[in-house]
Amino acid sequence: MSSLVNWFFRFQKFAVVLGGCYLGLVALLCVPYFQRHMLYLNAVKLPLFANFDSPESYGFAPNKTYNFKIHTPDHETIGAWFMLPESYYQSLPSIPVNVSEHITSALNARPTILFLHGNAATRAFHVRVAQYQALNSRLDANILVIDYRGFADSTGTPSEEGLVLDARAGWDWLVASGAKGEDVLVMGHSLGTGVGSQLAAQFGKEGIQSRGLVLLSPFASIGELLQHYHLFGFIPLIKPLYVIPGAARLVAWALVHKFDSLHSVKDIAGNVLIAHAQNDLEIPDSNSDILFQAFLDPYLPDAPVPTLGKLLSPEEWSSFSEAIDARNTKRTEIVMSTTIPKFGRVDEFTADGRRVVLVKTLVGSHDFVTSQEGLQDIIRKKFGF
Ligand SMILES: *[C@@H]1O[C@H](CO)[C@@H](O)[C@H](O)[C@H]1NC(C)=O
Ligand SMILES: *[C@@H]1O[C@H](CO)[C@@H](O)[C@H](O)[C@H]1NC(C)=O
């Protein structure tokens, strides 16, 4: 009996320590310095001691990838890699002695992907390298990948506006090097989707044409993501806070870096493809549904809003359910859904001359959705690579 009591006290102590750690973590999240580090994880410089000047060390063909620096208008210097497309590289009689001499003709020969990576690690991280290589060879595309300010060998400190400036500087470098905007596809993964959405919204406002926007494993906004975020894929981060009145609101208020892609949707013109693996444990695929729905919403009849705290009369009930039916009917009318056995599902609609596609893959988790050949082929077809 006494040992049982002993165990009970031990367990109680353990629970108190665990609860204290949890509250400590949430409190840290409210401090801008820690919030920045937890969101960007740019201090995690993987691979360790990377030699960016030798892309060959990470598996690239000799002198296929050019390592260089891009200067931003606010005086940061960011590290970048530019990869010659597969067909262009193979057409050369021998290994190029000076890659940068080939950039302009490669940009004219094949379309380009401006790749905006997610948080943590660098452009040399093996999981990422595998993705550029696949896009570079299977889509036969030029690839420009940048490391945002504060990441890898780039100067500065990350911030929401800063990352968007860096992406824009990457775009400007491509255009200055001879790329046509219509040939450049903006592609973001994870945190990079927040950056890409804002860049695309800028283009929408400035009337700049691109090949389109691809959002891989995106989130609707950091606020939305936090509500459903699970540490290590299974420990809910914010949900337990609901037992403390006002605590979840405090965290939302303390959020400095919002990356509200959902808010950018109205300004994004051009073709869009959103892709998410159903088994993504870091960012639930419901985020992609929310984004797709936001693109679709202007083309559906208004959603009925039930009056709270009041019983509906039979007439009100029937007009309410009619409005829902009208919305569903319109949705099935304009959204084309295709199930591809063993791969996933593709939903798409075309309106006002642009196409929005949602791809849900069965596998791929958070980091390997881009590695799905089925998805690469859909991107190739939809964006005319
Ligand atoms: C690769 O490029 C470097 C210059 O960046 C050059 O010195 C070297 O000779 C090139 N390699 C080959 C095999 O041509
Ligand atoms: C490589 O080519 C670029 C662009 O043509 C040129 O500016 C640069 O000086 C060249 N580098 C070498 C080492 O020849």
CATH class: Alpha Beta
- The helix fraction, in percent, is 40-55%
CATH architecture descriptor = 3-Layer(aba) Sandwich
CATH topology: Rossmann fold
Say which CATH homologous superfamily is assigned: Alpha/Beta hydrolase fold, catalytic domain
Low-confidence stretches: none
N- to C-terminal distance = 72 Å
Order of strands, main sheet, comes to 1-2-4-3-5-6-9-12-11-10
Mean pLDDT: 90
Ligands in the structure?
2-acetamido-2-deoxy-beta-D-glucopyranose
Structural class of the secondary elements?
Answer: alpha/beta
| Rg | 23 Å
Q: Strand share of the residues?
A: 15-25%
Total count of strands: 12
Summarize the structure.
By secondary structure, the protein is of the alpha/beta class. The protein is 41% helix and 17% strand.
Describe this structure in words.
The structure is a single chain. By secondary structure, the protein is an alpha/beta fold. It is globular, with a radius of gyration of 23 Å. The termini are far apart. The relative contact order is 0.11. It has a single domain, classed as Rossmann fold. A 10-stranded mixed sheet has the order 1-2-4-3-5-6-9-12-11-10, sandwiched between helices. Helix 6 packs across helix 7. The model has no long low-confidence stretch (mean pLDDT 90). It contains 13 helices and 12 strands. Bound molecules: 2-acetamido-2-deoxy-beta-D-glucopyranose (2 copies). The site of one 2-acetamido-2-deoxy-beta-D-glucopyranose has 3 residues, from loops. One 2-acetamido-2-deoxy-beta-D-glucopyranose (NAG) binds next to loops.
